[in-house]
Specification:
alpha/beta; 22 strands; 7-stranded parallel sheet; 23 helices
């Protein structure tokens, strides 16, 4: 029942030859399909070798139509009987001014077939293996056609509340399943599609909203009652710049969440460089004011170190203890940090996955901040919950803006905040698209920038299928770059996936401290490294990157006050899709617009973090094309749960029963 057809064929009416001739010769649709009834004429084989074809005709009262077969000629001659009435169905074409059908579908005519079929015929997807077992699209159709009459409305009970069905003028669930397979007309099919798409989106929203409303009502959370000494001192005396309106709004949302006694689970989205870290820091100071510890978790050691240095610098004149814990912190230093965390003297801990190890015991953890959320699995986040009697508040930060529709569908159980303004003094990165043959001009431009004391990134794509190819590509590119930038005048850092971690860290460190002017790398720098002095990024074979990846990479430059550039180098042969991506990248630096475009071009399954959420495996709905339906479903869902949070009212009984029957689908209790 849930194997839906991907299109329907209209065999509901019989066309006459005269009508078909009129249609074709009056400039009608060239690829129209039609069905004819007539007597089959004699066969004739025309042409030699590869040009051989079998020709016959079908004659009705108004004229004759030519039928042509290019393959299975002997078989056709065996099966079909000239002089017998047949129904022929196929695509009309015109050859030497005659109407013809190539490879028509033929079936014997009988008087009861006079008016054509009473429904649109479904075409089902199948696979090679199924076809080998004689289960092609047609056979699947026959099985479903035999099954449908045996079903009653009790077999497909309603799962939506009656008032929802009435308000939205949806057809019943039983009818929807009948009409999605064998609709009497196109209108019936569209009504079925609308009903089943809505149901899919609505159920996904319902599961997420139930989790969220349970959390809002029942989860206990530590209470941050006061805004005190740490927060105020920092805000008044040490804040390096005036907060933007968006940052203030997000802080208010966090402040409200943490004061209610319920656990906060907030997704903070901000474009590259929008100042999420300062919001995170102010939230941690709020926790410290209320005698709670905070932990900030980053996906890589370099990123953790950068957060630590940035935050330690900002807090250097304040009496607050910040520590860094990563895999490379060993011996006495590690012991002293673990001691400080467990006795509460370390108020802010920053680190990598190391912070969720069992050895790390907090005195009273109140706030967890996770940077670059899609790098952390659901299970890893869960381990942080157990670090305190009352689960700590959670703030998840991501620099890959998620389009609103997707956020509502994939992260509907997190409350989300958006920072949509750039801090003052940040200049947008100037993006340029250049073709391969202009490479020497690009290299001259890099030399000019380096002469001004700036630094440069050159990025090579990862080709997922082959790490060997990646490595060769990178090395070939590196050799070529060395010919443009010879040592000792220029120094180059190379970073790629095959290097031991220590070497990778060292090469990145040299670039960060300006020992080297050029960083040649595969996409490992995508997440977070902050080098304000780097003003140019060259992306080789930019057509091989997705939009959000290009945007993430571009965010590595433009972090200082100097004018920055991103140069997209591509070959001249570009697909339409790649050309569109280059156009979008040069036209806008707004991550949210780019994410929306990315969603349209690639579909939801490829966007970071949605694959693991499994929330988007819709059979019929498509969150890009059905955006208005996602909005409607979300609203209906929220109204329903506001009115009846536990689905106790009799009219919501069908919905509750349905959700309970779908046990396995309701995801990971209270986590992601």
């Amino acid at each position: 029942m849930h194997h839906f057809p991907y299109r329907h064929v209209d065999k509901t009416k019989i066309t006459t030859v005269a009508e078909a001739e009129f249609m074709l010769h009056s400039g009608g649709k060239q690829d129209a399909y039609a069905q004819f009834v007539g007597v089959l004429g004699p066969f004739e084989v025309i042409g030699e070798k590869r040009a051989r074809r079998l020709v016959s005709y079908l004659k009705d009262k108004t004229g004759t139509i030519e039928l042509v077969w290019f393959s299975a000629i002997h078989l056709i001659q065996k099966i079909l009987r000239p002089g017998t009435p047949y129904i022929a169905y196929g695509r009309l074409s015109s050859f030497q001014n005659k109407v013809q059908i190539v490879h028509p579908e033929m079936e014997l005519w009988a008087p009861e077939k006079l008016a054509g079929k009473s429904y649109l015929e479904p075409i089902y997807p199948s696979t090679e293996k199924l076809k080998a077992k004689n289960l092609g699209g047609k056979q699947i159709g026959n099985l479903i056609q035999a099954l449908l009459p045996q079903l009653t409305p009790n077999d497909l009970p309603e799962n939506l509340p009656a008032n929802v069905i009435n308000n939205l003028k949806l057809i019943s669930r039983f009818e929807a399943y009948q009409y999605i397979h064998f609709p009497p007309s196109q209108q019936h099919y569209l009504a079925a599609l609308r009903r089943l798409k809505f149901e899919e989106i609505f159920m996904a929203q319902m599961r997420l909203n139930l989790l969220r409303s349970q959390r809002h009502r029942f989860s206990k959370g530590v209470v941050f009652e006061i805004v005190g000494h740490y927060f105020n001192t920092f805000y008044k005396n040490h804040l390096p710049f005036e907060l933007t309106g968006a940052q203030k709004r997000v802080l208010r949302e966090i402040r409200n969440d943490t004061a209610r006694g319920r656990q906060m689970n907030r997704l903070l989205q901000g474009d590259v460089g929008s100042g999420k870290t300062i919001v995170a820091l102010l939230s941690m100071l709020l926790a410290a004011d209320n005698n709670y510890q905070s932990v900030m978790m980053a996906p890589t050691e370099i990123l953790a170190r950068q957060h630590f240095q940035g935050i330690a610098d900002l807090l250097k004149d304040m009496d607050i203890r910040v520590a860094l814990l990563t895999g490379s912190v060993k011996g006495k230093e590690r012991k002293s940090i673990l001691q400080g965390v467990s006795d509460g003297s370390i108020q802010l801990l920053i680190g990598t996955h190391a912070v969720i190890e069992d050895a790390v015991q907090f005195k009273n953890l109140g706030l967890v901040i996770i940077d670059e959320q899609h790098r952390f699995g659901v299970a890893q986040r869960a381990r942080l919950w157990e670090k305190n009697e009352i689960p700590p508040h959670v703030l998840v930060m991501t620099a890959t803006p998620i389009p609103r529709t997707l956020a509502m569908t994939a992260y509907g159980d997190l409350d989300y905040s958006v920072i949509d303004e750039l801090p003052p003094g940040r200049q947008p990165v100037h993006t340029i698209h250049r073709y391969d043959h202009e490479r020497s001009l690009v290299m001259d431009f890099l030399k000019a920038e380096i002469a001004k004391g700036r630094q440069v990134y050159i990025i090579f794509p990862l080709i997922e299928e082959s790490s060997k190819l990646d490595y060769e590509n990178l090395m070939r590119g590196y050799e070529e770059i060395k010919t443009y930038f010879p040592e000792p005048q220029y120094w180059i850092s190379v970073v790629h996936g095959k290097q031991p971690a220590a070497q990778k860290e060292e090469n990145m460190r040299r670039f960060v401290v300006h020992d080297t002017q050029i960083m040649v790398s595969t996409t490992v720098i995508e997440v977070g490294v902050n080098v304000p002095n780097a003003t140019v990024m060259v992306i080789e074979s930019a057509e091989k990157f997705g939009l959000s990846q290009l945007h993430q990479l571009r965010g590595r430059v433009g972090r200082g006050s100097e004018k920055s550039y991103c140069i997209l180098l591509t070959s001249r042969k570009l697909s339409n899709d790649a050309r569109e991506r280059m156009k979008i990248m040069t036209a806008t630096t707004n991550g949210f617009e780019i994410a929306e475009k990315d969603l349209e071009l690639r579909g939801p399954g490829d966007i970071e973090g949605t694959r693991q959420s499994g929330m988007l495996n819709f059979k019929l709905a498509n969150i890009v094309n059905d955006r208005s339906m996602v909005d409607a479903a979300k609203k209906v869902c929220e109204d329903l749960l506001t009115d009846d949070p536990d689905l106790m009212k009799p009219e919501n009984e069908p919905l509750k029963l349905y959700l309970q029957s779908q046990k396995g689908k309701t995801i990971w209790s209270k986590i992601s």
